[in-house]
Design brief:
29% helix; single chain
Length: 223
Amino acid sequence: MQWAGVGMWMVLGLSACSPTKTEIGNLNVIPQPQEVSQDIQAHPFVINPQTGIVYPEGNEKLQRTAEFLASYIKEATGITVRTTTEAARKNSIILAVDGSITNKEGYQLEVTSENIHLNGGSESGVFYGIQTLYKALPLTKNKQVSAAIPVGTVNDYPRFGYRGFMLDVARHFFDVDEVKRVLDMMACYKMNKLHLHLSDDQGFRVEITKYPRLNTIGSIRDD
């Protein structure tokens, strides 16, 4: 009788720890995609430990992209999902390149209750598509709620081919970790060119052993 009581309390305790509500994200992210439609009344795509991210076998770029997405989901929701090349089934996020998408950095995202399809004009397009998914996720880590993406579609492509950010390392020192953080933020906002300002009369940050005076003289001005 005593053990039966302990078992009952264990069941009740586990039930109390399981999520009872679902928090739904939003496909209207920044930068605003070209076309967005979502149905908040429909049953969303709910992320759980059984969710799989499917990428084409042999495509190393999409494998890395799938791993990035899995890490984004872990960061936002605390849920560990798997990456796989197995045939897609229910509860899958399916990554693919679609040659019919004319803009190579464009992507199409379709979310249903059962699956998410993300097709890009190239591997780069798929990569920018997962940035939209990342920002569409609700922040549910350490909460007793389930994370979900609303049913809907996104058709997106960049207006400009060159989307750059300049980092002035000639005048200001940035260590490797700081540069990596800048790159992460650039990816999040779908920028594609990093401009490193390496040289100025206040500093010459490229070592050129053949021309040492570039450093000893060219990096210093009289005033």
